[in-house]
Write a structure and sequence with these properties.
The chain is α+β, with helices and mostly antiparallel strands. The protein folds into two domains: 87 residues, Methane Monooxygenase Hydroxylase, Chain G, domain 1, CATH 1.20.58; 237 residues, BirA Bifunctional Protein, domain 2 (2-Layer Sandwich), CATH 3.30.930. The chain is 42% helix and 19% strand. The protein is built from twelve helices and nine strands. A seven-stranded mixed sheet has the order 1-4-5-9-8-7-6, sandwiched between helices. Strands 2-3 form a two-stranded antiparallel sheet. The protein is rod-shaped, with a radius of gyration of 43 Å.
Length: 345
């Protein structure tokens, strides 16, 4: 074995003994660095005669290529060993089942709201929408609620800047819808002609300062309004009784209209229901306020109360959902607990 073969063998042996990239680079410097053994041999070519320089240089280059090949081979081996170690430390068990996406479902209050809209739509009612930050006039004044009415107290109502408030019921949407309806047919009314009846429900979020197991500062209501020339209290009873039977999918119930007072209706009545069977059997449950629209409210709509009459009602959507699904605490609807909500998929 000549000198160059011996050098290559030593380089391979030393590279093989390197167990870390830093050790390998140190070994490389001893052979291929600026003061490395092969580098020194190449520098010594300058002292040889031209004929010997060519042969000697070719031999040294072959040895250099062999050393570089051995170096790259060891680099690759160290990289693969490091990768294997990393994979072992961060291994993934591909035999485990993947994470499945759960099947989403509508919130029970949303399901209830859609059911209510569907039932009243089948009776010819439109669905109104309106702002949740409301003007005082639409929320109180237009509904015959004077400035000294208790409902205007800070204990009941959230007020915001600019004289506005968070609506305390969805009745303002009824007024807005009625005013637009009357404007649409104003020319016909001024000419003494009739207009189509106003028949609308107004579902949505409302806000009051109230919180316990059956109340929430934010809750949902559906208000109903039917105004025409020949709308009576009898129509109110027929419409709402039909709604309750359809909503709960049973005729096995009793329904009563109990005299009450609301500033925007006269006469007024609370609507109670009682199931004849089931866990709530024998208990009267209040489900709505109702009444014949007050003449002043009819005037605020832009109509003549001597000619136009109607009825209105207001029901808690959350309460209807509680009765339908057997929920005994309103707060469960808004806690965001998936264990509760997943039951309604």
């Amino acid at each position: 074995m000549n000198e160059l073969d011996q050098l290559v063998a030593e380089a391979r042996s030393e590279f093989g003994q390197a167990h870390a990239p830093a050790e390998l680079e140190n070994a490389k410097a001893r052979y291929l660095g600026k003061a490395g053994r092969l580098t020194e041999l190449l520098k010594g070519l300058a002292q040889l005669p031209p004929e010997d320089k060519k042969l000697r240089g070719a031999a040294i280059n072959v040895a250099k290529q062999q050393v570089e090949a051995a170096l790259n081979e060891r680099r690759q081996a160290l990289a693969e060993a490091e990768l294997e170690q990393q994979l072992k430390a961060e291994s993934l068990d591909v035999s485990l089942p993947g994470r499945k996406r759960g099947v989403a479902g509508l919130h029970p209050v949303t399901r209830t709201m859609e059911r209510i809209e569907s039932i009243f739509a089948s009776m010819g009612f439109e669905v109104a929408d309106g702002p949740e930050i409301e003007a005082d006039w639409f929320n109180f004044t237009a509904l015959n609620t004077p400035a000294d009415h208790p409902a205007r107290s800070m204990h009941d109502t959230f007020y915001v800047e600019g004289g506005h408030l968070l609506r305390t019921h969805t009745s303002p949407m009824q007024i807005r819808h009625a005013v637009q309806h009357v404007k649409r047919y104003r020319e016909r009314l001024d000419a003494g002609q009739s207009m189509p009846d106003i028949r609308v429900i107004a579902p949505g979020r409302t806000y009051r300062v109230d919180s316990d197991a059956t109340h929430s500062p934010m809750f949902h209501q559906v208000e109903g309004l039917w105004v025409g020339e020949n709308v009576s209290f009898k129509d109110l009873k027929s419409v709402y009784v039909s709604f309750l039977r359809e909503f709960f999918e049973t005729d096995d119930m009793q329904i009563r209209f109990r005299p009450s007072y609301f500033p925007f209706t006269e006469p007024s009545a609370e609507i109670d229901m009682m199931f004849n069977s089931g866990p709530l059997k024998g208990r009267w449950l209040e489900v709505s306020g109702s009444g014949q629209v007050h003449p002043q409210v009819v005037r605020n709509m832009g109509l003549d109360p001597e000619r136009y009459i109607g009825f209105a009602f207001g029901s808690g959507i959350d309460r209807l959902a509680m009765l339908r699904y057997g929920v005994n605490d309103l707060r469960l609807f808004f806690d965001g607990d998936l264990r509760f909500l997943s039951q309604f998929k």
